[in-house]
Amino acid sequence: MAEQIEITLPDGSSKQVPAGITVADFVKTNIGAGLARAALFARLDGDELDLSRPLNRSGKLTVFTNKSREGLDLIRHDAAHVMASVVQRLFPGTQVTIGPSTEDGFYYDFYRKEPFTPEDLQKIEAAANEEIRKDLPFVRKEVSRDEALQLFEKLGEKFKIEIVEDIFAKGAKTLTLYSHGDWVDFCLGPHAPSTGRIGVIKLLNVAGAYWRGDHTKPQLQRIYGTAFFEKKDLDAWLKQQEEAKKRDHRKLGKELDLFAFHPAAPGAAFWTHRGTLLFHALGNAMRGLCLRNGYQEVKTPLMYNKMLWERSGHWGKYRENMFLILDNETKEHDFSLKPMNCPSHHLLYQMKRHSYRELPIRYHTQDVLHRNEATGVLSGLTRVRQFQQDDAHIYLMESQITDEVKRLSELLKKVYEAFGLSYTARFATRPVQRIGSDETWDRAESGLRAALEKTGLAYELKPGDGAFYGPKIDFDVSDSIGRKWQLGTIQLDYEVPERFELGYIGEDNKEHRPVLIHRAIYGSFERFIAILIEHYAGNFPVWLAPFQARIVTVADRHQPWAREVYEKLQSRGLRVELDESSEKLGAKIRDAQLMKVPYTLVVGDKEVEGKGVSPRVHGEGKQADLGYLPLDPFIERIEREAAIPF
RNA sequence: GCCGACAUAGCUCAGUCGGUAGAGCAACGGUUUCGUAAACCGUAGGUCCCCGGUUCAAGUCCGGGUGUCGGCUCCA
Q1: How far apart are the C-alpha atoms of A128 and A94, rounded to whole Å?
Q2: Of A28, A80, A307, A438, which sits 20 to 30 A from A22 (CA to CA)?
Q3: DSSP string of A362-424?
């Protein structure tokens, strides 16, 4: 008689069953045949199990079906196996590596000399879906190190052998293999009972990826794909991707005439008038916020002798990213454009003696920075070589850190919430390439972390991701297609004040070393604007919109009053434009709508007579037309909406 | 930087087998003066990204470069 175990279900009930019963049998006999048919895998406490696995101990059991996110992730991993199997069948000699599921689907990395073409992808996709129709069972098997190595050596899978050796070197006793049909891979599992459960596979694109993410290792070909339980879910997802593309800041930037790029200046944006208005609306808002929160705004040179970079440590750790300038006289690269503002702020700080009574001293700067980014990483406004940060450096006493980090978190929250952006925080610790002793890093990391925990903000840990001079808290916001971008950052730095021998006179009349905080909220204007364009789909709120209103005349005789309205609004500091062309009203409305101007002010006989306007808000439908309004109430309304929300 | 794809009028895009480049919108001129998402007629607009090669002939094929895009590495 087998030993009895107790399995607890999510509803709190529990069942006594003999040990060794398979998950599938347990579900069928103790929960129901319906769930047994729908089940994909189960979790016993923390352990994920195939349906064919035995239950050997008591615990809490959760069964996952196609209704859950976990189920979807599972079939995507299944899909990666299926794809890899047909790739090896269709393209003999291709070596396999790894293939996990991702947020949106899955990928699998292959090693093969010849590139996969889009036609190859079509063939692979068709064959993969054929494997689904065959409904091949996934079969699990445990093997020893020797068996595993023998198998992959026979198959000639060099990359697999490398991973197998690693796994056993880390102390594993056995390796699990999963096969479907005659194809086998090792994998932690679990997998669905059979390929038929996958639904539908769609391959998306192929891209290069380095073996183990290391650019010194061989380059692999990564095929991206996705999978869904139902074709209609795939179609819905594809449609959603199309919609997201319409919000792409590069597309909207062109359509809304905000910015452009030219091959003569790769990675540096040309800002049109409209784009510049938006840029300055953001800059002025931040400027005001800083001034009201104890910051001094400063400006420092853009170009420096390398003596500064040697002192700051940039010359040693950051030179590859700097634009060096060849001196005609010395024929040396003695100067560089600044890639960061910090060193120049320290020079400014040093120009005067400072008292403990002044601290914290907060310098805010929106200067232009240049970083020589690798060509392959440039992308629209999100990754550029020339950009402006809403940068600040805060000099303070160690005892003020917690308070200041808390103030900063609140400032950040206030700003992001004003835009309706949701964000996540990451705490990043010492990187391999760094300056400063381990002791100072210990102090900086624990200090910043303690301050972060006092704010009550949820955060994720990113070991090794800190700046070369100190640990940091990064704030990420997602773009329209779900990619995360780092915007704000708070970085704690004990090292640089040392290097620059910064000081302040304490209460004891002796010289002390301040601590430094680097921080940005927008991050860079360029990246922030990219995110905002996608976030609002170009429909900016009145306070941000490049032009807040456009006046359109019904006929030429309405031009004098239209011009009067134009001048009146301009004199109130509103950003307004005038369309007095001889187009029909419908065409002018359309033009204004396409440019997503928040208010279109129609001026015709009625408006001339009453000395007013007929505003139409951006958007479709009958409610867009607000009807006739005297000028003053309209000005009151638009000025209210033009107010900076932070 | 690495892998792959792409580059035609201001914009969006056609261009077959290698045979001397086309549409819509925008622009410009004229007509129209109109009430909430595109008036009509006409005109002009091109180093087919750049350099080289193959060919009687290259937007088209080949090589190199530049830029852009999708990823990787890196990053605000």
Answers
A1: 16
A2: A80
A3: EEEE--EEE----GGG-BTTTB-SEEEEEEEEEEE-GGGHHHHHHHHHHHHHHHHHHHT--EE
What are the pLDDT digits (tens) for A191-206?
A: 999 999 999 999 999 9
A295 and A346 assigned to the same domain: yes
Bases of chain B with protein Cβ within 7 A: 1-5, 11-12, 31-39, 66-76
d(CA A363, CA A298) in angstroms, rounded, equals: 6
CB A478: neighbour CB atoms within 10 A? Answer: 16
Q: Helix crossing, A118-134 with A69-90: angle to 10°?
A: 110
My answer on whether A187 and A149 are in the same domain is: yes
Provide the CA A427 to C1' B73 distance, Å, integer.
22
CA distance A134 to A197: 11
Give pLDDT, residue A482: 64
* Residue range(s) defining the domain that contains residue A521: 259-300+339-536
What tens digit of pLDDT does each residue of A328-368 get? 888 888 899 999 999 999 999 999 999 999 999 999 999 99
Residues 569-588 of A with CB under 7 A from strand B: 582-587
A63 vs A295: CA distance, rounded Å: 55
